[in-house]
Design brief:
Blueprint (H helix, E strand, L loop, with lengths): L19 E5 L4 H12 L4 E5 L3 H20 L5 H8 L2 E4 L10 E4 L5 H14 L5 E4 L6 H4 L9 E6 L8 E5 L6 H13 L3 E5 L7 H14 L6 H8 L7 H8 L2 H15 L28 H24 L5 H10 L7 H7 L2 H14 L20 E6 L2 E6 L10 H14 L7 E6 L4 E3 L14 H11 L1 H8 L4 E5 L2 E3 H7 L4 E5 L3 E3 L16 H5 L4 H10 L3 E2 H7 L4 E3 L2 H14 L24 E2 L2 E2 L2 H16 L3 H15 L3 H11 L6 H4 L1
The structure holds coenzyme A (COA).
């Protein structure tokens, strides 16, 4: 068994999903954690414990309010909204913990208090109950120092708002049983969170960034106002440090956490003396700005960026977290527009050196890089790589966009394949998606607006995105797609170029492009007809009407080779397929193919989606021309060119704009 695979779902958990969770502390983040758990696991029994009945009543009301909002927004059905509130009870009595299999403590950041709570918890729960603390700063080794059975305890650090924010740090401290850490990561990943494995340093990984970012902002108040600092910070974050501090009532927290860092690691972390004397900062909301002189902008920008880089290299040098998790966590949990390592990558090295030099002068003691800066940038950002019995499992991880593909991600997949394909210890590859919802939701639509209106550039984009797919066509070692959830558009186009497909029973495939005013230009108009001619009519319906292909139907049609009922079984099945294909796999037919005729009726809508007649015409033409093309590469080229053509239509402009604006496109108007 892998100790801690990068993809948390590669391990078979040693215990089932929780049945009864108790959360201690109904005041602030506790109920939000509970609401996330109940939304993901509606049958869960949830107990909220607090010394104050008023806090419990307010928490239960919060559940009702959230559910009402979700219902009104169409995010939940009536049944789901009811289920999320059922089986939730409050109590001021710790005896209510007795039957729990997981207790999450979310009380005030106070070591003595937390220890008292855990003594009471341990006296009541069974030996196999998991115990976690939601501290943002206090190391597990200190919080759990007095536990009789510390191996079942660790820190799980959530981020606000915990019902929606996907990030959660899971602390791997020396006493925690590896099975506990593996189970927590599995539970989180299964329930839609993104667990970030972090070591037991004070403030763990992300609060080292956040607290020092805020503390630095406060230390800069001698040269700029809070509003000016938030204005400068807007280059890097969606909301400035002072705005966030107001929102989170965070001044006492920064004082507490930076005092801890100062006491443990040095005076340079000491909190700014101003924090205790301020209640609310006078600042601007995100999107607003005040005037800041060039000189002040530079001073503030240098220091903020300096502290960000300093903390990032320190986290990596001390192995507190991985570079990919640091990047993802900063963006998803802390609201950075780009991760600190992406900022470092995208700035000239001399610029980074100057900023670090200035920080060293103005803030002596702050950590400095221990390696060449380029060394910190050498990692995969969008994929995780694991080894399972000599098979490299590549996991697409862009949880913010349902693992949607862009050129950087396809380049990373290709680089991993190239790195290992001649390695005799590696028998092949599996490609899967992070989490349980999506294998991949297609090409990243966010990148499309730049391509619209430029035929040649759009066709070239399709060709560039196909580099990986063309490489797969020529490979000797097998690559198996493990569809853990939906595979849409470009995601399905990637899967269909793998040498075999296996899927979760509830997975499904779809080609929704005609509902976006574009077309699937990197293989879907070509490959299925040459690879699975028996399913040609099904692919016609997928391309023209966005019909879904469910995993069971795909199995019956021979598109998918095997189904699995759990993520671990999915990977085991995929690995077995790789091993079975070691002696060779079938190639996609190169020559022309005969197609069944399209229905004479052009659909205008299907499955509640409006369809573009212009795009439909382009798809039908490309499919027919590609079928007659003398070679696979000539047929693929027809697809790239058709994508270029589609990108110049009014339908594409409308479809892509509508997706960005979260509205239905008006193809009646634009065609
Ligand atoms: N490219 C970029 N971002 C994508 C994406 C894609 N292909 N698919 C989903 N996302 C993003 C969404 O924009 C959303 O981001 P936000 O939270 O910042 O708004 C996030 O992933 C979650 O998706 P959301 O749409 O909120 O989830 P949902 O459950 O309501 O709907 C889908 C799920 C798959 C039906 C919907 O996301 C969708 O239609 N995606 C596009 C699929 C597609 O057409 N793919 C082919 C592209 S060529």
């Amino acid at each position: 068994m892998l100790k801690h695979p990068n993809n948390p779902l590669l391990q078979t958990p040693t215990r089932p999903l929780p049945r009864h969770v108790a959360i201690i502390g109904a005041g602030s983040i506790g109920p939000d954690i509970g609401y996330y758990l109940k939304s993901a696991l509606p049958a869960l029994q949830l107990t909220l414990i607090d010394i104050d009945q008023g806090a419990i009543d307010a928490a239960l009301k919060r559940f009702a309010d959230y559910a009402k909002k979700a219902l009104a927004k169409g995010k939940m059905s009536e049944a789901q909204a009811a289920a999320v509130q059922q089986g939730v009870q409050g109590s001021t009595d710790y005896d209510a913990l007795k039957d729990c299999d997981w207790v999450i403590e979310a009380a005030t950041e106070n070591l003595a208090l937390k220890r008292r709570i855990f003594a009471q918890v341990e006296a009541r729960v069974g030996l196999d109950a998991v115990i976690t603390s939601n501290t943002s700063s206090l190391p597990a080794s200190r919080i759990f120092a007095e536990l009789k059975n510390p191996e079942r305890a660790t820190v799980t650090h959530f981020f606000a708002p915990a019902w929606r924010n996907p990030a959660v740090e899971v602390i791997d401290w020396p006493h925690a049983a590896p099975e506990l850490v593996a189970w927590l990561r599995w539970v989180f990943c299964t329930t839609g969170k993104v667990p970030l494995l972090t070591s037991d340093a004070p403030c763990f990984m992300l609060d080292r960034i956040f607290d020092n970012w805020c503390n630095e902002a406060a230390l800069l108040l001698d040269c700029a106002t809070a509003a000016q600092i938030d204005t400068v910070a807007a280059e890097f974050v969606h909301a400035g440090p002072f705005f966030v501090l107001n929102l989170a009532r965070g001044n006492p927290i920064i004082t507490e956490t930076n005092t801890l860092q100062a006491d443990e690691e040095g005076e340079h972390y000491r909190p700014a003396p101003i924090f205790p004397s301020v209640d609310q900062w006078l600042t601007v909301a995100p999107g607003q700005r005040v005037d800041v002189s060039a000189e002040t902008t530079r001073a503030v920008r240098d220091r903020l960026l300096g502290v960000l880089l300093s903390q990032s290299v320190d986290i990596l040098d001390r192995g507190i977290g991985t570079p990919a998790d640091l990047e993802l966590g900063c963006c998803t949990a802390l609201g950075f527009k780009r991760g600190p390592l992406t900022l470092l990558r995208d700035m000239p090295e001399a610029h980074a050196q100057r900023i670090l030099k200035r920080l060293a002068l103005e803030r002596p003691g702050m950590p400095m890089p221990k390696r060449a800066l380029a060394d910190y940038l050498n990692f995969e950002r969008h994929v995780l790589v694991d080894d399972v019995q000599g098979v490299k499992v590549i996991t697409l991880r862009r949880p913010e966009a349902l693992n949607a593909l862009h050129d950087e991600m396809t380049d990373e997949i290709l680089a991993v394949i190239r790195r290992f394909e001649d390695d005799p210890a590696v028998s092949g590859f599996v490609i899967t998606g992070y989490g349980t919802r999506a294998f991949c939701a297609g090409a990243d639509i966010g990148r499309f607006p730049d391509l619209l209106g430029d035929k040649a550039a759009a066709a070239q984009y399709a060709r560039d995105c196909s580099r990986l797919l063309v490489h797969l066509d020529a490979m000797h070692k097998p690559v198996v797609a493990a569809l853990n959830g939906m595979a849409l558009g470009g995601g399905f186009e990637l899967a269909m170029r793998c040498h075999a497909l296996v899927a979760m029973e509830q997975a499904w495939m779809q080609l929704p492009e005609v509902s976006l005013g574009i077309l699937p230009g990197i293989g879907a108009m070509v490959v299925p007809y040459r690879r699975w001619p028996q399913a040609a009519a099904t692919f016609h319906a997928m391309l023209r009407r966005c019909d879904k292909l469910k995993a069971k139907q795909a199995l019956a049609l021979g598109v998918v080779d095997a189904l699995a009922s759990s993520p671990a079984e999915l990977i085991a099945t995929a690995v077995a397929r790789v091993q079975a294909l070691a002696s060779g796999h079938a190639r996609i037919q190169h020559g022309p193919v005969t197609l069944p005729a399209f229905d004479s009726m052009a659909p205008q809508s299907a499955h509640g989606l409006a369809l573009s007649p212009t795009t439909l015409g382009l798809i039908e033409r490309a499919v027919q021309e590609a079928a007659q093309a003398p070679s696979l590469s000539a047929a693929l080229e027809i697809g790239y060119l058709a994508f270029g053509e589609a990108a110049c239509t009014a339908a594409a402009r409308e479809g892509i704009a509508a997706f960005g604006e979260k509205r239905a496109p008006d193809f009646v108007r634009v065609g």
